[in-house]
Amino acid sequence: xxxFIYGICCGLFITILVALLIGCNLNQYAVGPAHIINPKAxxxxxxxxxxxxxxxxxxxxKNKGILLTPQEYTxxxxxxxxxxxxxxxxxLAVFSVISFFHLKFIAQEEVKKNVTELIRKSPEIxxxxxxxxxxxIDEVLYDIPDKIANLExxxxxxxxxxxxxxxxxxxxxxxxxxxxxxx
Length: 183
Hints:
Number of domains: 2
Helix content: over 70%
Number of strands: 0
Largest sheet: none
Oligomer: single chain
Distance between the termini: 56 Å
């Protein structure tokens, strides 16, 4: 479950990071509406001053690179929507993977719960499990009495041998006494 929570946190972090990157690149070409007029056309002398001011403003915007041609504007708009579509596809993939693993985890937990409940409540399954386990236990315990009898006979034999040994030297006898386990 900890891996799942870690995955969700990483997914949210990446989503927020992508949203911030897209948000920072938005509106870098935002300019108030500019009305383009033909300065060479016959216009009343009253509006010529305003027209020259607007034409100068347009030239300044063009020189700064703020005023876009229709191709540049369309290209920027297409890039913007391509970025949005790419981010949405990536988010769809991330959430699909997260959903897959989450559903897998939930399904496994549900199966474990149902199996333990079925084992506890169904006497038929308990009988089958008991027969299988009993057979395995009998195979393991089959040789145990023979092994115990073998060990007991070996112990008796070793006791007889130890009582028959003659200790000729008193020093060896003292060493033997010091080595014996006191009860």
